Amino acid sequence: MVMSVEQTVEMAQRPTETKLPKPAIELRGRLLDRAPFLVACLMLALIVGIYGSLQSGVFSLDELNLDTAAAMTLMLAATGQTIVLLRGGIDLSIGGMIGLGTVIAATRFTDDASTTALWALIILALGFSIGALNGLLISLLRLQPFLVTLATWSILNGVAMIILPTDGGSIPSWWVGFASAQLLGLTSPVWMLLALLLLWWWFRATRVGIAIQATGSNEKSAFLSGVSIARVNLVTYGLSGLFAAGAALFLVTQTGAGSPTIGKDYILPSVAAAVIGGVSLFGGRGHLAGTLIGAFVLTLIGNLVFVLHVSSYWQPVASGVILLLSVLASSVAEKAARNRVQ
Amino acid sequence: MSGELFESACMDLVTVNGLSKRYGGIVALSEATFSARAGEVHALLGENGAGKSTFIQILSGAVRHDGGSILVDGQDYRPANPDAAQARGIAAVFQELSLIPDLSVEQNIWFRHEPRTWLGTVNRTEMRRKTLALLEKYSFPALRPDQELRRLTLAERQIVEIAKGLAKDPRILILDEATSALPAREAEWLLKLTRQLASEGRLVIFISHRMAEVRAIADRLTIFRNGSTVAAHEANAVSDNEIVTQMIGRHLDRLYPERVSTATDRIALGVKGFSSGSRLSGVDFALREGEVLGVGGLQGHGQRELFQALFGATRASGSIELWGKPVSIGNPRQALTGKDGIALVPEDRRGQGLLLTKSVRENLTLSVIKRFTENGLLSRQKEAALVKEMVDFLRIKAGTPEQLAGTLSGGNQQKVIFGKMLLTQARVLLLYDPTRGVDVGTKGEIFQLMRDLAARGYAILFHSSDMPELVHVADRVLVVRNGRIAATLEGDHISEEEILRAAMLETRAA
C-alpha cells in the first residue's frame, strides 16, 4: 500500500503521543541524583554504628544533644557555605568573620542583657554587611570569589587580632548557658538544627532561593531570564556572612572567650561538610540536609577516634578519606546519570 | 479591547532608527532601521554575522545599544536589562536558550514569575495548573512539567524555551531560530503557533534560515547585511532569489553543488549489527571512499545515537571495520587515533565542539598538538603554518588566528570545527547537522567543501535535520526508523517524499 505525500505529511504532523518514561527508570534516575546524599547517610549510619558498638549510651537523647552541640558551630558556618556553593561560589572569609565575631562578643558582652543583645545584633549585621561587601566586590571587580574572600578573610583576621591579640575576654555566664538550655528534653542546639532545616525548606522555595540556585546552575541563562547577578551575589555572600556571625555567637557559648584565629578551623570543614552531603562545587545542586549530615559525619569522626584510643591526629586523616570517598561516590553517580541520559 | 487592538494593528508597534552597537573595535550594528506592526509575523533575515543576534539582544534587554532610537508604542524604549524588556511586553526565545539545567520544566517556564503562597514560597499546585493550561492553550507537544531540564533533549529544551517566552504573555515575541532545533513535526507546530499568536494581535519577530518557513508564515520581512538594514518587503512582493541576493550582497548561482559521485568500491567504514542502548538496534551499512552518505528519518529514531556511538562517545556493540580492518572504538581518543581515523562534527557546536574562550588557533590544534611537537617541544612555526593553511582553505573570517572562537559568527565557528576535524587527518567524517543555524552563503560553502573532500577520497556520513539538504547533497541516503535502517535510497529514488515514506512506514502499520 502506497501513501500519498499528503497522507505522509499529515502523519508527520500528528501531535506526539505522550511518552512517559517508565517509573522504574525514573526512580533509578532519582536515586542516582541523590546518590551523594544517600552515601552521606550511609556513612553517618556506619559511623554511628561503630561508635555505638564501642561506647554505651550512644543511642540516647543525651548523646544527640551532646553531638549536635559539638557540631552546631560547623553547621551554622556550613549553612552559609552551602548557599554560596549553590550559587557556584566559595566563601573563605567566614574564617575571619567567625574570629572577629568571637572577639567582639568577648570584649563587648556584659551582664546587662540589653547591651549584650544589642551587640549580638551588631555582630549579625556586621556579618551580613561584610558578606554583602564580598558579593559587591565579586560583581563589581569581576574577580574570582576565591580571591576576594581570601583577601577579606585576611583583613578580618587582622582586625580581630588588633581588637584582641590573644585568646581571652569574657562571655557572660547567662549567654554561655544558652547552649545547654532545654525544652522538651532537647537542648537549644537541637532546636536550632530543626529551625535551620525549616528555614532552608522555606528559603529554597522562595523566588530569591530559586534565583540563587539558578544562577549557580547557569549564570548566563539566569541573566537572560532577568536575574540581577549583582543582587544575587550580594544576598548570597551576605547570608554567608550572617551565618558566620551566628556561628561566632554560638561558638562563644562553648569557649566562653574570644579567639581571633579560631575561625580558620571552620573554613575548609564547612566546604567539606557540604561536599560530603552532596552539594555540588559547581553550583546549582545540593541541599542543607546533606550539609548537616556531612557536619555530623565530620564531628562524629572525632568521637570515634577518641573511643578507639588512637592518636587524635587520625581525625584529619579519616576526614580526608571520607571526603575523597564522597567525591568519588558523586562522580560515579554523575557518570551513571549521564550515561542514562545519553 | 478589540477596537484598541485593531487601531494599534494599523500603526507601528516597534520603530527602530539608526540603531548602532559596537563591541570593542567590531561594529555589530550600524544605522539599522526596522519597523513592525502588531498582529503580524515579521521575518528578520540575514547571514550569520549580519547583526540579527545583536538586534534582538538589544530588543530583549540583554545588551544596550550605543546609538539610535527604538520606539515601542511611540514611546522611547531603552531597556536596562531583560526584566525591563519584559515589563514592556517584549519576550525573546533565545537560540542559545535561557534555561536552567537544575530546575524542572515548569520551574523554568515560570522562573522569576512563579505563583506564590502567603509564605512567599512557590505555589506548586497553582504553578502546575498554569503550566498545563499554557501547554494546552497552545497545544504544545507532550512535556512532563516535573522533569528536570538537564534530562531533556535539545528539541525538548527548545520547546520549553518557547513555553517560557509565552508564559510572559508578551505583546512582542522574538523567535530566534526556534525551528532549527526542532524535528519536522514540532517545527510545523511552531509555525502554526506563530500564526495563531499573530492573529491574537501580537507581533512575532521570526528569525530563520529556512526560506520555506519564512515563506509559509511571514507577512513582512526585513533583511540585514553587515550590521545594516538593506531592505524591507511585503512577503508576497519579493522572490526567493531577490531575498537571497540581498542577504548575501551578491548573486548566488546555486546553493547545492553539482552532485558528481566520486565513490569508489573501497569500503571506508563497514558497520554490522551495530547496537547502542535502546535507541539503536542492529544497524548494518557500508560507507565507501569518496562517498557522501546521508542519514535521514524522523528525529529521535537513533540518528544521534548512531553518530555518537560511531565516534565512541557512547557505548555500543556490533562490529566496525575501518578501511577493511576490524576496530573497537571505546572512546573518542581511540576513534581519532591514527591517520585514517574517524572525526565528528557534533550537533551542539558551542557545547561540544568548540572552546569559546579559546582562540581560533587553539581550537584548531588542540586535538592534534602532537603533530607540532619536536622532541617534546611545541614548534610554533609548524603550528602557525598549518593554522594559516586551514584558515585560508576554509575561508574562516577571523581578524587573526588569535581571535576568540566565541566572537566568530555561527558559520565561521562551524568552519573552525571542520578545520579541527580535518587537521586530525581522519578520513572518515561524521557530520551531524553541520549546517544548523548557519547562513545560506556559508551553507553553500559547506556543501561544496563536502563534495571537494569526497573527491579527495574522504568518506562522509552526513545527517541533516533539513531534508532538502540530504536530497541534494548525498549520494545515497539511509533512512533510520526505530533504531534500524528502514531503507537505503539511491539515485532518483532520493526525494523528500521517499525519505518520509520510509521513515513513517511502521508508524502507519501500528
Structure, described:
- The complex is a heterodimer of chains A (342) and B (510).
- Chain A has 342 residues and is an all-alpha fold.
- Chain A has a single domain (43-51, 58-332), classed as ABC transporter involved in vitamin B12 uptake, BtuC, CATH 1.10.3470.
- Chain A has helices at 5-13, 23-33, 35-54, 61-86, 94-108, 113-141, 145-163, 173-176, 188-205, 207-217, 219-224, 229-255, 264-276, 288-307, 314-341; strands at 182-183, 186-187.
- In chain A, strand 1 (182-183) and strand 2 form a beta hairpin.
- In chain A, helix 4 runs antiparallel to helix 12 (229-255) and helix 5 runs parallel beside helix 7.
- Chain B is 35% helix and 25% strand.
- Residues 1-9 of chain B have low confidence and may be disordered.
- Chain B has 3 domains: 2-248, 3-Layer(aba) Sandwich (Rossmann fold), CATH 3.40.50; 266-341 and 428-510, P-loop containing nucleotide triphosphate hydrolases (Rossmann fold), CATH 3.40.50; 351-424, no CATH class.
- With 510 residues, chain B is an alpha/beta fold.
- Chain B has helices spanning 2-10, 52-59, 82-87, 105-109, 124-137, 154-167, 184-199, 211-217, 240-248, 303-310, 332-336, 349-353, 360-365, 380-394, 410-423, 440-455, 467-473, 496-509, and strands at 12-23, 26-37, 41-45, 67-72, 75-76, 90-93, 172-176, 203-207, 220-225, 228-234, 267-276, 280-288, 292-296, 317-322, 325-327, 342-345, 373-374, 377-378, 428-432, 459-463, 476-481, 484-490.
- In chain B, a hairpin with a 2-residue loop joins strand 14 (317-322) and strand 15 (325-327).
- Classes of the chains: A mainly alpha (342), B alpha/beta (510).
- The interface between A and B is large, with 42 and 53 residues.
- Chain B: Keywords: ATP-binding, Cell membrane, Membrane, Nucleotide-binding, Repeat, Sugar transport, Translocase, Transport.
